[in-house]
Specification:
The chain is of the alpha+beta class. The protein is 47% helix and 24% strand. The chain contains eight helices and nine strands. A hairpin with a 2-residue loop joins strand 1 (7-9) and strand 2. The protein starts with 6 loop residues before the first strand and ends with a helix. The chain crosses the membrane at residues 6-26.
């Protein structure tokens, strides 16, 4: 069985193998971004995999892969009821702002990310990446972690997601400095 070269036609790639044609959609949309799927789950807790895939316009396979990654990173949790799996954002037990701040300060990248958000309220993810020099995927995990801690808040301003530090953490961070 020999494979012929891949022919790219717009967004489609045709792989011709043993006389049969298989079309694959090369999906380069925001649906590949784990942050996009995590935001969908955050806004719609309790959705099934199929509904998440439909809302994010991602394939079932891509959505399942991304959700598995989010579960491994402890961002999302799976809830099985009556044979149906649904997904929600994992909640971190409430601790005092000082305890959480100590955990943030113990991780250099988290500390750097949090410091940038405190210094410049309503900053976008792209601006944080440019300021810190961290990659987009790393920034996703750090911002998700800070959001789960309640240290930062994500708002939508003029069609863009922006981040700002929560008031209690600004006070605790100021006391730390």
């Amino acid at each position: 069985m020999s494979l012929h070269p891949v022919v790219v036609l717009g967004f489609y790639a045709a792989c011709i193998a043993a006389g049969s044609v298989v079309l694959y959609l090369i999906d380069r949309t925001a649906a590949h971004d784990p942050m996009h799927i995590a935001a969908c789950i955050r806004e719609n807790p309790g959705l099934s995999l199929e509904k998440i895939a439909a809302k994010t316009n991602a394939s079932h396979l891509r959505t399942a892969y991304t959700i598995r990654r989010l579960i491994r990173k402890h961002v999302v949790m799976r809830i099985a009821k009556n044979g149906v799996s649904t997904y929600s954002i994992r909640k971190i037990p409430k601790s005092s702002a000082e305890e959480i701040l100590q955990e943030i300060l113990g991780n250099d990248a988290l500390h750097l990310t949090f410091a940038v958000v405190v210094e410049k309220p309503e900053i976008t993810k792209r601006e944080i990446i440019d300021t810190t020099g961290l990659s987009g995927i790393q920034m996703f995990w750090y911002l998700s972690r800070l959001e789960m801690f309640g240290a930062i808040v994500r708002d939508k301003k003029i069609g863009k997601w922006t981040y700002r530090a929560a008031d209690t953490f600004i006070k605790a961070y100021a006391a730390y400095k």
